Amino acid sequence: MEPNHEPSSDSYAADIASIRRAQVRIEPFAHKTPVLTSKTLDSVSGRKLYFKCECFQKGGAFKFRGACNAVFSLDDDQAAKGVVTHSSGNHAAALALAANLRGIPAYIVIPKNAPKCKVENVKRYGGQVIWSEPSMESREEIANKVLNDTGAVLIHPYNDGRIISGQGTISLELLEQASKIDTLIVPISGGGLISGVALAAKAINPGIRILAAEPLGADDAFQSKINGRITKLSEINTIADGLRAFLGDLTWPIVRDLVDDVIVVDDDEILQAMRLCYEILKIAVEPSGAIGLAAVLSDSFKKNPAYCECNNIGIVISGGNVDLGMLWNLRGCDPR
């Protein structure tokens, strides 16, 4: 499946102009999410932290921004045939919701091992669920068949300039809400979120530092940065179900050029960060969404050469769709 993207004035799939257009396009539909602070977490981290809470976005995650931008950028003839994607999580629900708002069909290919709460979100928003095997090959094969059968428009979860532009609107908001930020810590998976955030943030403040937060069991971006090319892993093993994708050909050049470093953390650190979000920030955050806080508190970050220069840190809390049953089972707890 060939990714689609808006034309850009440079070599990237998006730029500050496409991100500003996306902000105007999605403004009637997307929430301007709040920024939370905590003196307790500032004290624990030794830094001033600003949490951009995309867990409060429609659909429970930042993914609605990109999906909304993509759906509402279609012309009427394209939109009439609907949209299709393959996704194991928040993009699936976001696209279903955006399509519902425009009144068009959404065909969502979902692997059988997707978190139940995220599948229920897709159904709640009127998406037509089509099951695939857990492998990327199966997801893409079935999505291709749906494309051929329906004539719908592919909206890739991350490797799409319209998606990247929509996610970049986070930076436009956050840097207005907290102008002192000198560093952004952003979850990384396929790279759509961090690509948009980095493009917008660096355009606004070229000196801002962009750090990716990645699970140890899915550290392909870390390895890609070291190797200077997209590096895929033979095995993925992390609780952060939203961070299991590999970089795409549109996101990789942006990550390569604009992401200053990757902070790798393990699942125990992610779970501890989730707990702090619950107990101190009083917000429900999924593992993928809590990884930014995990990175800030990690030894890996404290050993990073840039650590001393990161004083005012913006952290993107990327999603709040938590499969509590899975977490309780993982930790051997019975909620009843």
TrEMBL record:
Domain of life, source organism: Eukaryota
Keyword entries, A-Z: Lyase, Magnesium, Pyridoxal phosphate, S-nitrosylation
Catalytic activity, EC: 4.3.1.18, 5.1.1.18
Domain Tryptophan synthase beta chain-like PALP, first and last residues per copy: 28-299
Pfam family, one: PALP
Gene Ontology biological process: D-serine biosynthetic process; L-serine metabolic process
Keyword Ligase part of the UniProt annotation: no
Record-linked PROSITE patterns: DEHYDRATASE_SER_THR
GO molecular function per UniProt: ATP binding; D-serine ammonia-lyase activity; L-serine ammonia-lyase activity; magnesium ion binding; pyridoxal phosphate binding; serine racemase activity; threonine racemase activity
Protein family: Belongs to the serine/threonine dehydratase family.
Purpose: Catalyzes the synthesis of D-serine from L-serine. Has dehydratase activity towards both L-serine and D-serine.
Name listed for the protein in its UniProt record: Serine racemase
Native source organism of the sequence: Capsicum baccatum
Lineage of origin: Eukaryota, Viridiplantae, Streptophyta, Embryophyta, Tracheophyta
